[in-house]
Amino acid sequence: MFNQKNIAFAPEEQVYYPDISFSARANVRDARIYDWAGMDYEGYWAEEAKKLHWYKTWDKVLEWQHPFAQWFVGGKINACVNCVDRHLDSWRRNKAAIIFEGEPGDQVVLTYQDLHREVSKFANVLKDLGVGKGDVVTIYMPMIPEAVIAMLACARIGAPHSLVFGGFSAEALRDRIKDAAAKVVVTSDACWRRGKAIPLKQNVDTALTQCASVEKVVVVQRTGSEVYMEPSRDLWYHELMKKASAVCEPAMMDAEDILFILYTSGTTGKPKGIVHTTGGYLTGVTSTHRNIFDLKEDDVYWCTADIGWITGHSYLVYGPLANGATVFMFEGAPDYPERDRFWELIEKYRITLFYTAPTAIRLFMKWGESYPAGRDLSSLRLLGSVGEPINPEAWLWYHKHIGREKCPIVDTWWQTETGSVMVAPLPGLVPTKPGSATMSLPGVFVDVVDELGQPVKAGESGYLVIKKPWPSMLRTVYKDPQRYVDTYWSRFEGMYFTGDGARRDKDGYIWVLGRVDDVINVSGHRIGTAEVESALVEHPAVAEAAVIGRSHELKGQAVSAFVTLREGIAWAPELEKDLKNHVAKKIGGLARPEEIICTWELPKTRSGKIMRRLLKDIAEGRVLGDTSTLADPAVINQLMQQRLTPK
Ligand code: ATP
Ligand code: MG
User: Fold this and answer.
1) ipTM score of the complex?
2) CATH 3.30.300.30 domain range(s) in the chain
3) Which residue's CA is the closest to the ligand 1 atom numbered 23?
4) What pLDDT digit, counting tens, does each position of 314-349 carry?
5) Is the CB of 529 under 6 A from ligand 1?
6) Which residue spans of the chain are classified as CATH 3.40.50.12780?
7) Residue 644 reports pLDDT greater than 60
8) Considering every ligand atom, which ligand is closest to the CA of 389?
9) Which of 262, 446, 512, 604 to probe ligand 1 with, by most ligand atoms within 8 A of CB?
10) Cβ–ligand 1 contact at 308 (below 6 Å)
11) How far apart are CA 284 and CA 255, in angstroms?
């Protein structure tokens, strides 16, 4: 049965309907799923959970002791078995699980059978090193198959993993190892980045001078760079694997045993150690991956996120592998050796599903459409976006130049804390609007509320909250349950507070406006940073924009904008005036930026999100807040200089 979500859109609105041939074959074709799941969300999630392999089914679907949830209570499960072993008793065992291309162009293909062998061996290696159920393993690795093998090996023996993005410094790594009290660290000698070997092991050595919990370090040889090996502590992966047995009985885990700890990106402050457990998390990611990406047996799926972020965990590893997908994994950068590397890869591997972030899309826009135009992207059938609000202009560019106007776009709103996507269109059912993540998924209760927790009226904005527990929700902040309660469950009675602001339009569509702390209050009017930024990005001269509110004597706050320009455009006073007028025309005089500062790059987290709080610190002349997750400190230094130089 096929029917579309039945909404009467205004004629002037830009709405993109699912293509009928896409809808007719979509994994989810019946819009009544929203009603069924809405009426009985526990029942809905229990049905989704049944699609996994359980040693023992649960006694109770949900145990909710506000704000602490347990899902599938009494159920016994193993995440690795679901991602690997259960695909072996069909033809799928010979299917490619991971197709890897390294930055230098080297390739590795691992079938599910191969993956099973490698994971089992590494699980035995970890066991031999004394890692048991509940012992934390920190993984500090580049985007190579061994990273996935290490994650699944941990899951196989019940050791929670804690991934630290390979781009983090020794100090950031040290803090995360210490907080998690890791017993073993898995790393590599180095990784490839734009033709250079960037050391990783060296950072581990520095970090470990202050981490007493770590007993062993396993080192994967990636670049062949010379590294120091501490004789009593450090071991080579390839040597250990040579001797390891390929038979490893998986541990029977409780549904609520910890699967992993992951620290948030640090966009708004000091990162939080988010705890995810096994049964509910796996249910959430597997179900949403199948439904949102419309995964089919013969798809080649590429998620560009690093495994060090939640998107890498949920939609590069656990979701797709539990669904038996073929996952493409890429080590390198989008502009090396050329700016069409991504498009070359899509052409070469005939990628069908492509999932990336707005920050990348804006970069591609900045470089211009000639790069994708030179490649055959006809294999693509669906595009995804995650990480930040996608500006309508970027959405349209993605739709036209990458999707060639035939691929649905799924804009997926979610967080490290939510574990899986919460707001996104089901691509066969939900018409999309550029810039809106559309609506809550079935069985998820996201709402936009006012200060008092009342749902806002159509057309108004407020706070994005989640009103009922969901299976893949974080269970706590590692070793800090009070911070869990304070951060997420204290602002609104009985609701999970996301920290994001949003607008609900007249059709009920959700438009994420950015962090509530970033919302600007000009003379008593609330202006969303995302709206002003989208207006700026719409201007043909602008590649990216970050907007903040800085204190202002008369208005309370004034809008301050920072922009980067598209290739070949020069900064001039007329352009600044033009941009200010453009914003005023698009949104209104109140949103007109007081000043616009042109820069070569915006300060971003290492996951690519704009760090507005640092721009605010600069604009208001404060000491900078936590900068440990900043990708490139040079950007901030330059901006500080610019502020000090009178115009
Ligand atoms: P921290 O919590 O440490 O400040 P962070 O919030 O950036 O870091 P993540 O969990 O990686 O860490 O990011 C989740 C946030 O990213 C969301 O709260 C939201 O602000 C933003 N986000 C993610 N996807 C979308 C999307 N599709 N549309 C709008 N915003 C998004
Ligand atoms: Mg956050």
Assistant:
1) 0.99
2) 523-644
3) 387
4) 999 999 999 999 999 999 999 999 999 999 999 999
5) no
6) 20-502
7) no
8) 1
9) 512
10) no
11) 13
The model's pTM is 0.95
Question: What tens digit of pLDDT does each residue of 14-49 get?
Answer: 999 999 999 999 999 999 999 999 999 999 999 999
Does the pLDDT value for residue 4 go beyond 80?
A: no
Beta strands in 166-295 (DSSP E): 184-188, 190-193, 196-199, 216-220, 234-236, 253-254, 258-263, 273-277
CA of 620 to the centre of ligand 2 (A): 23
Instruction: Write the burial class of residue 336 (CB in 10 Å: 0-12 exposed, 13-18 middle, 19+ buried).
Output: middle
> Do the bridges between strand 258-263 and strand 300-303 make them parallel or antiparallel, or are there none, so unpaired?
unpaired
**Of the bound ligands, which one is closest to the alpha carbon of residue 466?**
1
Question: Is the Cβ atom of 512 under 6 angstroms away from ligand 1?
Answer: yes
Instruction: Give the Å distance between the CA of 270 and the centre of ligand 2.
Output: 10
- Tens digits of residue pLDDT in 206-236: 999 999 999 999 999 999 999 999 999 999 9
Which stretches does DSSP call E strand in 264-377? 273-277, 300-303, 326-330, 353-356
Split at pLDDT 50, 70, 90, the class of 643 is low
Q: Which CATH superfamily is domain 20-502 in?
A: ANL, N-terminal domain (3.40.50.12780)
3-state secondary structure of 7: coil
Closest ligand to C-alpha of residue 498 is 1
**Ligand 1 within 6 A of 420 CB?**
no
Domain 523-644 - what CATH class?
alpha beta
Average pLDDT over residues 110-138: 98
Cα end-to-end distance, the chain, whole Å = 64
Residue of 176, 264, 385, 436 to mutate, ligand 1, most atoms within 8 A of C-beta: 264
Mean pLDDT of the 143-167 span:
98
Distance CA 319, CA 259 (A): 14
Atom of ligand 1 nearest to the CA of 274: 10
